[in-house]
Here is the input.
Amino acid sequence: MKPVFMTYTKKDIINLAICMVLSVLIIPTFIKTEYWYTSILIPWLCLALATIGQQIVMGYTGQLALGAAGFMAAGAFAMFNLILRVPDLGFVGSLIMSGLIAAAFGILFGLPSLKVRGIYLMVATLASQFFIIWMIDKFGWFKNYDSSGIITAQDIVILGKPFTTPLAMYFVCLAVTTVLTLLAMNMARGSTGRNWMAVRDMDIAAESMGVSLLRTKVQAFAISAFYCGVAGALFAFCYLKSLEPVAFDIKLSFKILFMCILGGLGTINGAFIGAAFILLFPVLLNAIGNNVFHGAIDATIISSIEQVIFGGLMIIFMIYEPLGMAKLWENIKQKWKTKFPSINLKNLKSSLSKKS
Amino acid sequence: MVEELLFFMEVLVGGLLAGTMYSLVALGFVLIFKASATFNFSQGAMVFFSVLAFCGFMQDFNIPFVLAFILAALLMVVVGLCTERFVLRPLMNASEDTVLMATIGLGYVLEGLAQAAWGVEVRRLDLGIGDFPVPWIADNLKLFISALDITAGVVAAIMIIGLFLLFKYTKIGLGLRAVADDAGAASSIGIPLKHIMLLVWSAAGVVALVAGCMWGARAGVQFALVDLALKALPVLIIGGFSSIPGAIIGGLIIGAVEKVLEVYIGPFFGGAIEGWAPYVLAIFFLLYRPEGLFGEKIIRRV
Amino acid sequence: MAQERKFKIGKPILEVNNISLSFGGVKAITDTSFNVLEHEVRAIIGPNGAGKSSMLNCINGIYKPQQGTVSFRGQQIPNITPNIMAQMGLSRTFQNLALFKRMSVLDNILVGRKLHTKTNFLEVALQLPKVKKEEKLNRERSEEIISFLEIEDIKDTPVGKLPYGLQKKVELGRALATDSTIILLDEPMAGMNVEEKRDMCRFILKVNDELGTTMVLIEHDMGVVMDISDRVVVLDYGKVIGDGTPDEVRSNQKVIDAYLGVEH
Ligand SMILES: Nc1ncnc2c1ncn2[C@@H]1O[C@H](COP(=O)(O)OP(=O)(O)O)[C@@H](O)[C@H]1O
Ligand SMILES: [Mg+2]
Here is the structure.
């Protein structure tokens, strides 16, 4: 694993700059089809954000939680109600409030983590998943007494300007995700992240160093749920454009768990890699089904195959690389560097200057 | 007053009997946990996989009932074999959490395979046992209790007694207990670890098939079975992961409590509280008795 | 150890009174009392299973004894937890290595600086100037400890990948990073060769000498114990069978019978 840097290195800043240029300049210039925004980029950003939440509690703090979708639902419906009932709050204010409301649920359902771990904790967090969805479903107030079951999400308006085109919504998601990712990286690399990881790796020793298990775990659950809550609100408002509890069922929680684990536990970039993989792979599989087999394979069969592959990959990663795709990527880069040291820009420069 | 009491009895007995179905799923869990200290998250998927195969054999290939059941059981043995060889053995030295995640992956594989092979439609499974009140009991005891529930209760009892005898009085059972106590020591004195694991996974597979038949006959053979089987987890937390009686009693408690709550409290909240009530009950157990009813308290060594 | 010491051995800083601890039926410690004086090096010895580790675990609040009390600076601590003891200035290492395996050596030691970190997660997330300042100070102190222990070359390695002896060193480093007034060391030299042991002794004595840190250590190597400790307490079957200077303990017949006798 990479050593943890506190201050940003040159490499970090270059990486960030590349990402920003790519996502703000290049993608909008070259990608014109709405499909890419509405069906891939927007859900990717939202789910990556939720996966960061899952990473914080599971990858960094080592608490096996399985209720991300429940917190997403809490965030989404909080957003709906805040915009409906407290219009003065504005979009950003509502988004932050939604995250905080989800965080409150996170604290409540994170409390069992003080007593139990592993699968025991997983079962306790399942309670949050089922309870939150049920609560939203059964109390009409949350849905503003809408009986149709699906509510249309309000339009996004920031400082009086509507953000309703796919591109505009993409930028909203991008901005929120970028800010929250940077904050998450700061925490993960700083003393906060060290406390999380200490609790993950050896809780008794952490406690003996003065790290409070209560505070650290509850904090991780709260921050995790905050990220999930914000992600859920974006997911509902920018991607689904509607609100229905079933969109946040246990299957979505599993999906986020897979993104987190396959992407690489305990990494922030793994959240983005994992989310991209889980989202894009079915697209690829469908394309193969349509173009190679010309639709001869039933769509349900394709989705079953997809499930087999995800499950199989999970097993394979657990056996060969429990740290996931992010670690795989790291290894490839490492191999590349040792194989072709001259490709490394710095070496290239220094070797050039030596020659001259 | 008498009628209210009768109604309560009816709810309670119905809940207890339905609880035995949870017990059946939990039983498979306990078997594997006892032998290999592995939390097999895929037990629910095994339930779905086995019963869907069973239905498939009968309905798509017109194989007679008994033969189809045997084939499905054999299929589960193969699944057990593959799991032992390709998932558990390579993860011998991995952490508990890693193995748990691998079994989550295994669950996905099984669910996907089942649906790819047999389709996604809901299938009806007719065991020749109706899911309606038994007239004799309704007439004489004034209790309306489903024949299917009673069957599930009887089947669960038979399986438990069978497993109990297997554990207690056979060489295999002895080996199994030795392995559960200390796998390393057991294999060093020549107990064939591999065979035992295989046997346990097969037994868990057959238990899953039986559980699947019971659930399938009631709710139809469909994907939702996986979610139903998830409720075996709170059952295990209440009973303790390593105790067969615990699985049974945990199942009964969950069955009874969720039914009673649903009938008496559910209406005030628009129903469907059985979806989360078992999990919340499990949380209370975790807070007050984390080791479960039958587990033993362990102080971590440092 | 009669040379000039910068920090003179003083009053009792830690007192263990009538501790009894059992696990189910197994009695690990029976009615044990002893004390530790300020600035001294105190050794706990005894055969395997004598209850030495359990004793440290009771002092530090990981195990809850059924009976008895622990006093720190003359004050009885009512509800001992590892966290409370850390805040009172007591740090420790563990017999079976309790490092943060996936974190680097530097990060492990930085966790030891936890109690010198006052900024909260929001401030850390926003990277406020005071966070940077505090982090810089903590890093400087950690680097100091790293160079004191002569482990600069491995500071970025994940500790899980290090050999046993080095891991023991890192664990000492983490305990030192807390700047505690008293450090409990559970078999800090187990599994080390003579050279490594000598190094370890040097570190322990130097810290005790220069910072005045009180040291309580469990050790099996009698040579080492006799060399570096001011006083020794001997446990056997959970009971104190000897307590005094190394010389007193060495000539104590009970100790010879129970402990040294076993070895010869
Ligand atoms: N967490 C525990 N659970 C059960 N028994 C324990 C535990 N910790 C220690 N013991 C028992 O307490 C006794 C003392 O152990 P310990 O303190 O580790 O001895 P020492 O460190 O002197 O070798 C031993 O019999 C040991 O088996
Ligand atoms: Mg010991």
In short: The CA atoms of residues 202 and 244 of chain A lie 40 Å apart. Confidence is low (pLDDT under 50) at residues 1-7 of chain A. Chain A has one domain: 31-345. The interface with chain C takes residues 1, 3-4, 6-7, 183-184, 186-187, 190-192, 194-195, 197-198, 200-202, 204-213, 219, 223, 266 of chain A (CB under 8 Å).
